[in-house]
Amino acid sequence: MNVFSLQNKVVVLTGGAGLVGRGLTRAIASAGAQLVIASRHLEKLQNVVAEETAAGHAVVAEPLDQGDEASVLALRDRVLKRFGRVDGLVNNAVSRPMNSPLAAAAAWEESMRVNATGIFLMTRAFGEAMCRQKTGSIVNVSSIQGMVGPSFELYEGTNMGEPPPDYFFHKGGIINLTRYYAALFGRCNVRVNCVSPGGFFSHQPEPFLRRYCERTFLGRMADASDLGGPVVFLLSDAAHYVTGSNLPVDGGYTAK
Q1: Residue 138: what pLDDT?
Q2: Is 5 a catalytic residue?
Q3: pLDDT, position 256
Q4: Could you give phi then psi for residue 181, rounded to 5 degrees?
Q5: Would you state the pLDDT for residue 217?
C-alpha cells in the first residue's frame, strides 16, 4: 500500500485555507507530503500552517497571485530552490468576483485573469519543471458545474441568487485544458488529471439543501473530507497509469 503514500514528495497546493482547500491541505499533508500552500491571503495560510505543524505535518506557506505570471514563476523558483524538485501540483484556488449574471464585464475579466489565465500559468510553469525531472503529477480542481448546465430551480425561494456564468465557463475549460496538458506532458512522464467535486455543505438555506440532496445518490452534499482521498490518489504512484481523466466526486449527482 506504500504506492498510495506521498512520503518524500513535494506538492504545491494553491489555496489551502478555504472551504475546499482546507480539507485538501489536511489530506495531502497527512499522506506524508512536504506541502507548500500558496495564495494571496498569506495570513490565513499561516494559521493553517500552525495547525498542521501542531499535528506533525510538514506544511509551509508562500504568497501567490496566480493571475500574474511573475508571481507564478517566482513561486516555482522558490519551491525549486528550497526543495530541489516539485512532484505534485494541485490547482485548487479560485476567485469569485462575479456575484450574478448581471455583474459588470470587469468582474468577468478579473475572473478570467485568475481562474483561466492563472490555471494556465501554473500548469505550464510547474509542468515544465516536472518535465525536466521526467516525473510529476498535476491535479486540477474543476466542478460538476463544468460538466453540466445550471439547475436554477435549486435556488428558488432562497436568498442565494443565481450562479454567475464565469464559474461554468472556466470550470468547463479546466477539464479540457487537463486533456491538453496530459497529451503534451505525457511525453515526459508527467500526468495531468482533474477532479470535479459536487457542492460542499456550507449552511445553505433549507430549500436548496433539500433539493440538492435529492439530486444525489448518497443523499447529501460534500464535506471537507470527501475530496482529499481522490486527490491524494491522483498525486500518488498508485495512479501512475492514470492521466487525462476527469473524476466526478459528487455523490452521484452527474450520474442521476
Answers
A1: 98
A2: no
A3: 86
A4: -75, -25
A5: 98
Say which residue the cell 494571496 belongs to: 40
**DSSP assignment letter at 115:** I
Residue type at position 94 = V
Instruction: Based on the residue annotation, tell me whether 171 is a catalytic residue of this protein.
Output: yes
Q: Across all residues in the chain, what is the average pLDDT?
A: 97
Closest CA to 165 of 212, 104, 216: 104
Q: Which of 111, 137, 155, 171 is catalytic?
A: 171
Helix, strand or coil, per DSSP, at residue 168: helix
Question: Which DSSP letter does residue 152 get?
Answer: G
Q: Which of 71, 111, 142, 143 is labelled catalytic?
A: 143
189 grid coordinates: 512522464
Task: Map out the domains of the chain with their CATH numbers.
Answer: 2-150+163-200+228-255 (3.40.50.720)
Are the C-beta atoms of 146 and 196 separated by less than 8 Å?
A: yes
Q: Which of 167, 181, 212, 253 is catalytic?
A: 167
Residue 251 binned pLDDT confidence (cut-offs 50, 70, 90): very high
Does residue 167 carry a catalytic annotation? yes
pLDDT in tens, 67-125: 999 999 999 999 999 999 999 999 999 999 999 999 999 999 999 999 999 999 999 99
Q: Give, for 123, the enclosing helix (H) or strand (E).
A: helix 118-133
